[in-house]
Design brief:
The complex is a heterodimer of chains A (167) and B (431).
Chain A: H1 2-37, H2 46-68, H3 80-83, H4 86-119, H5 131-135, H6 137-158
Chain B: H1 3-19, H2 24-38, H3 45-55, H4 62-75, H5 78-90, H6 96-109, H7 115-132, H8 137-148, H9 158-167, H10 171-200, H11 211-236, H12 242-260, H13 266-299, H14 302-313, H15 317-334, H16 337-354, H17 359-372, H18 381-390, H19 398-417, H20 419-430
Classes of the chains: A mainly alpha (167), B mainly alpha (431).
């Protein structure tokens, strides 16, 4: 199905992007240290903002991806015999779905308000970047969560099983 | 509506959502929504705002870097060299592999900040080896899970980073504070191994100590063993911040893995960065949602309610520390250490300060208790990881885990009663 193929591609793309972001954060931190201790490298102040903003993007992108792969920590205190009961697992899924939908709603609606009213009007201290570039990640996290949730519903309908993983 | 009522409602929503298997990070965020809607001065935008404020603290970047460093060390088979070294040192004792398990965990704890990486890396090598030598599976799982606890107590430690970032305590000081309790835990576990090995007649790994083999394996593991000294030395000497130390740990592990031991390829590094980015996004996301939870409590003045009510009952520091221990033990059964710190510690620390407990002392006690949380079911991560590797249900190992659990509680009580011994190292940093 084209929709699922697109979502899978998009999910992989985000993970590649996160890899790039973490690498940039790492290199920036190294530049920060070398700036202090290696004489011919000047101390760069922008590095700290690159690290901060990179981390924010990485977190909000990653939170949605982890939702798709069911990797967020959850606690399993329900006795096994209830966990296997179809009715109960149905109810659990409805609760889960409600939480994800409320979450996506808040992140999209209030995320856009936050982006427009709190962030677009500010600039970062050192790099003078518009803070909107950084916190665009928030409503995007909401959209991604919603998209991945829809993909999960489609998969359920088609009978494609996704495993719950917990590391 | 009074602050107390709102606190209770928020907490009740959180507990019921967690019970219904909603991921903890999301349960935390959703539970605060009613509290943010009730008060006219508040808006759900604060949820997002508080998360972003939390993420502005650069110290949190230490988390992805420490995870990455630990994963790269596992990937480049540095763990194998540590196992070989430990085998040469304690392999000839009765129950040799049990000691090896503890000793490797101590070495690894000094290089990585994560107990999970410790349990996964060491468990996948030593659990099969121990089972093959006919150790009983309960002890095997118990010793792997419990020795991995040192990973988050012996510096560097991700838990200390989170504690420092949340409660404004010096992370360098916390690192130093973890050394002594960590070593004590290791020694106490060796004591258990000594007793059980005699009682159950565990095998020796080798017949006698070979000093040649020790010398060879120290030389072989030399570059890896240098890591703790670089990290802790750099932080104590004021040369680098904990965040920078974590980045240095990554570069050092890449250099050692790719150029000295040549067991790490470029593709390995890229893969590990990808997994780390995802894992740390999960942890950091739950730090963010937990911080809004703590903020809502602070907004409704709940910590001062608690301080007042506890002051009415007791002003004895030891009793307050015991109460905190109890709360963290319960929290540790159901939560990961990171959200537990962010939700509970800001509530308890004001009480501790009010009765005159040093914040560092409070931090050491609670960190060790949270370490114990890693081996208490239903949600004890190192226990879950180890029993998964051994392919048993985690409850099966509980009888042996209980022994380790009791000894760790004894250590907590020693720390509570004799703060001066344990505060000596972190106080050095203050001078």
């Amino acid at each position: 199905m084209k929709f699922l193929a697109f979502v899978n591609f998009y999910c992989r793309l985000i993970q590649k992007l996160m890899t790039v972001i973490l690498t940039i954060m790492f290199v920036s931190t190294l530049i920060m240290i070398s700036g202090r201790y290696i004489p011919f490298i000047p101390p760069f102040f922008w590095t700290i903002e690159v690290v901060r903003f990179g981390m924010i993007w990485m977190i909000f992108l990653g939170a949605a991806v982890a939702l798709r792969e069911r990797e967020h920590f959850f606690v399993d205190i329900m006795p096994v015999k209830y966990g296997k009961n179809k009715n109960i697992s149905g109810i659990l899924y409805i609760v889960y779905a409600a939480v994800i939908l409320i979450f996506s709603y808040i992140y999209i609606v209030y995320g856009v308000i936050y982006f427009k009213d709190w962030c677009l009007v500010q600039h970062s201290e050192i790099l003078q970047i518009n803070m909107g570039f950084i916190f665009f990640s928030v409503p995007l996290c909401g959209v991604n969560s919603f998209l991945f949730f829809v993909a999960e519903l489609v998969e359920k309908k088609l009978g494609i099983e996704r495993k719950e993983v917990q590391e | 509506m009074s602050g107390g009522t709102i606190g209770i409602i928020t907490f009740a929503i959180l507990v019921s959502l967690v019970f219904l298997r909603v991921p903890v990070a999301f349960a935390l965020a959703i539970a605060t929504i009613p509290a943010l809607l009730i008060d006219e001065k508040l808006t759900p935008c604060i949820l997002i705002n508080r998360m972003s404020v939390q993420y502005m603290s650069v110290i949190l970047t230490a988390i992805p870097f420490f995870i990455l460093a630990a994963r790269i060390m596992n990937r480049s088979k540095i763990t194998d060299k540590l196992v070989r070294l430990s085998l040469s040192m304690v392999g000839s004792l009765r129950g040799g592999l049990g000691y090896v398990n503890i000793l490797v965990s101590m070495f690894f704890a000094g290089m990585s900040g994560s107990s999970n990486a410790d349990a996964a890396g060491i468990g996948s090598i030593l659990i099969p080896a121990m089972l093959k030598q006919k150790y009983d599976v309960n002890y095997t799982v118990a010793v792997t899970a419990c020795s991995a606890v040192m990973g988050c107590i012996i510096p560097p430690s991700i838990m200390a980073v989170v504690w420092g970032a949340t409660l404004n305590v010096s992370v360098g000081g916390l690192f130093l504070a973890g050394i002594l309790p960590g070593i004590l835990i290791g020694l106490s576990q060796m004591l258990i191994t000594y007793i059980l090995a005699r009682k159950r007649n565990y095998p020796k790994y080798s017949e006698k100590i070979s000093f040649v083999e020790i010398a060879i394996s120290i030389k072989d593991a030399f570059w890896a063993l240098l890591t703790p000294f670089i990290l802790v030395g750099g932080i104590i000497g004021g040369i680098v911040t904990p965040t920078e130390a974590s980045a240095i740990a990554v570069s050092y592990s890449i250099i050692v893995g790719a150029f000295i031991y040549r067991t790490l390829s470029f593709k390995d590094i890229v893969e590990e960065i990808m997994v780390t980015a995802k894992l740390s996004a999960i942890i950091l996301f739950s730090i963010g949602t937990a911080s809004i939870y703590a903020w809502v409590f602070a907004y409704y003045n709940i910590p001062s309610y608690l301080v007042n009510s506890v002051e009415g009952i007791t002003d004895n520091p030891i009793v307050v520390l015991l109460i905190s221990t109890f709360f963290f033990l319960i929290a540790g059964m159901f939560l990961d250490a990171v959200p537990a710190i962010i939700i509970i510690a800001p509530l308890l620390q004001p009480i501790a300060v009010a009765v005159g407990i040093d914040t560092m002392h409070f931090a050491i006690v609670c960190s060790v208790v949270l370490g114990i949380g890693l081996i208490t079911p239903p949600y004890g991560l190192t226990l879950l990881i180890s029993s998964k590797i051994a392919k048993i249900n985690c409850m099966q190992a509980m009888k042996d885990v209980g022994l380790f659990f009791i000894l760790m509680l004894v250590i907590v009580i020693i720390i509570i009663l004799f703060p001066d011994i344990f505060l000596f190292l972190p106080n050095l940093l203050k001078k």
